[in-house]
Amino acid sequence: MATFEELYRQHVQAVFRFALSVAGKREVAEDLTSEAFLALHRNLAAIDQSQLPGWLLTVVRNRARDWWRRQMVERRYAEQFVAAPEPEAPPVERWLLDSADLKQVHRVCLALRYVQGMTRAEISARTGLTEMQVKGHLQYALTLLRKAHGVQET
Amino acid sequence: MSTDRHDWDREERQSLDGLEDQIDAMRRRHLGSPPLELLRAARADALPEDLQTSVSEHLAASAMSRTLADGLGDDAPALSDDEQERLFARIMKDARKEAAPASVWGWLRPALVGTGIVAVASLVWIVSKGTEVGERLAPPETQVVVALPPAVPPFVLPFDKPAVRLGMGALTWRGSSPSTSDDGNQLLADLKPGLDAYRANDYATANRQLTALVSRYPGTIEILFYQGVSRLFLNDNAGAIAAFDAADAVGDRTFASDVAWYRAVAEQRSGNDAQARAQLNAICNTHGSDAGRACTALEQLAKAPANPH
User: Fold this and answer.
1) Structural domain of residue A45, as residue ranges?
2) Is there a contact between B98 and A34 (Cβ–Cβ < 8 Å)?
3) B167: phi > 0 → left, psi -120 to 50 → alpha, else beta; which?
4) What's the CA gap between A3 and A44, in Å, rounded?
5) Considering the domain boundaries, does residue A81 fall inside one?
6) Residue B4 carries which DSSP code?
7) Which of A149, B109, B147, B246 is most buried, by CB atoms within 10 Å?
8) CA–CA separation, B188 vs B300, rounded Å?
9) What is the pLDDT of residues A68-115, one digit of tens each?
10) Domain boundary among A75, A104, A125
11) Same domain, B208 and B256
């Protein structure tokens, strides 16, 4: 049976990534990760270790729901969103979504920059990438975009 | 937040020259979409019910929002070594705080035990004297016995992580694809991020990466099988069953027994014991190497009380 520290080292990255994906903020993700491992520490003797990391992720998911519930009250999130955009997508959008040359990170950076209109600093804050990384991914993606759409190199 | 093209730098203006109208049209199409954080939380089923329903409906209809919700894949940032250590120290500090009241209790315990011994000795003395005092003693408080569920289910199908293996179909894949890797096998190149994440126990990423490949490589058993196992690790039993269902439909005999075994695990975890037994029966009735353990599992299931899941 592994010790608590061994389990922490084995699973912390996966738990943190999951927490970051459900909360979107690094400091909240750290809180959720900390709470999950604290729960594990509390229940270490009773837990079937073969259920890890699923057990930890379930704790994160439940705590995240509580966190979002509080956010709903504080931020008054609208609960109805536009179900779907208009059916006609321009060619650039179809390329962004379907091009096999793009990696997921390129699609996300392009979408945040040109669909959601974020600055590079905002993209960096939302994704955890550095601003330099964001700039690099955008530059690469724009080069491909130019080629795909026949825009002349200048 | 920037709202238009005025904050584009020179390179962006050059790159997007002639495409501005399309960019504007694309942005207008998604003005009513939920913010990024909500999309990603909904993807992980981590929102309160009403909000989850609303955002999930949007996700089902919007490919752009699904792309954002899928996150960064392998590029997702993780904790640095320093951050890992700092978080560990914080957890241990909180754990010690929680344990502190127990220490006080530990200090008081000998005194309370001593008091109890004196009380019991007094009671014995009173009863042995047969005086009326004994009859006036209050009846013992009713003891409420709470029936706790067993800590460990009576019989839970073993869930061991299967190692990554690739069938001949994947190893010799030569399908057409918009981009082809250097060695000519684009399927293997595309599988690699998902399977690497799976090997590294990062099941959320593995699930995401493999799910993204399902429509591009329909009927590829490796994608569906490791997607299902990743979902089992994430406690997404319904999702795992759906993946194994699709894997079963592929009809790949080299994975058939594994698909049935892990499907049985997912069914049992979902409380569908009859379905779990049906899967095990299918393996037990073969002459394959897994038949023995499936038959044994069936016997144990028959002896055990209902699974509390």
Assistant:
1) 4-75
2) no
3) beta
4) 9
5) no
6) S
7) B246
8) 39
9) 888 877 666 555 566 666 668 889 999 999 888 898 889 999 999 999
10) A75
11) yes
Contact B1 A116 (CB under 8 A): yes
Question: Is the minimum CB–CB distance between B125 and chain A shorter than 8 Å?
Answer: no
CA dist A18 and B41 (Å) reads 10
* A9 and A70 assigned to the same domain: yes
At which of A47, A75, A103 does a domain end?
A: A75
DSSP 8-class letter at B74: G
Q: Is B208 exposed, middle or buried (0-12, 13-18, 19+ CB in 10 A)?
A: buried
In this complex, which of B51, B61, B151 lies closest to A79 when CB atoms are compared? Answer: B51
Size of interface A-B (CB pairs under 8 A): 234
Q: Which of residues 55-114 of B touch A (CB under 8 A)?
A: 55, 57-58, 61-64, 67-68, 70-73, 75-79, 83-84, 87-88, 90-91, 94-95, 98
Q: What is the CATH number of the domain that holds A54?
A: 1.10.1740
Q: Which residues of chain A does B18 touch, with a Cβ-Cβ cutoff of 8 Å?
A: 149, 151
- Are the C-beta atoms of B37 and B22 separated by less than 8 Å? no
pTM of the predicted structure, to 2 decimals: 0.52
- Partners of B11 on chain A (C-beta within 8 Å) are 139, 142
Q: Which of B51, B74, B97 is the last residue of a domain?
A: B74
Q: What angle do CA B213, B218, B219 make, to 5 degrees?
A: 120
Q: B17: which 2 tokens? A: 């020259």
Same structural domain, B111 and B183: no
For the segment B191-244, what is each residue's pLDDT rounded down to a tens digit?
889 999 998 888 888 999 999 898 888 788 999 999 999 988 888 888 898 899
Residue with tokens 């979408």: A111
In contact, B167 and B222? CB cutoff 8 Å? yes
Residue listed under structure tokens 């890992």: B84
Peptide bond preceding A53 in cis form (omega within 30 of 0):
yes
Give CA B198 to chain center in angstroms.
12
Task: Give A89 to chain B, closest Cα distance, Å.
Answer: 7
Which tens digits make up the pLDDT trace of B117-173? Answer: 666 666 655 555 544 433 333 333 333 444 444 444 467 888 888 888 888 777 777
- Which of B3, B54, B235 is closest, CB to CB, to A117? B3
A21 found inside a domain? yes
A48 within 8 A of B128, measured Cβ to Cβ: no
CA A50 to CA B103: how far, in whole Å?
31
Angle at A138 between CA A135 and CA A139, to 5 degrees: 85
Q: Is A41 helix (H, G, I), strand (E, B) or coil?
A: helix
What is the percentage of chain B residues whose pLDDT exceeds 70?
A: 72
Complex ipTM over 0.85? no
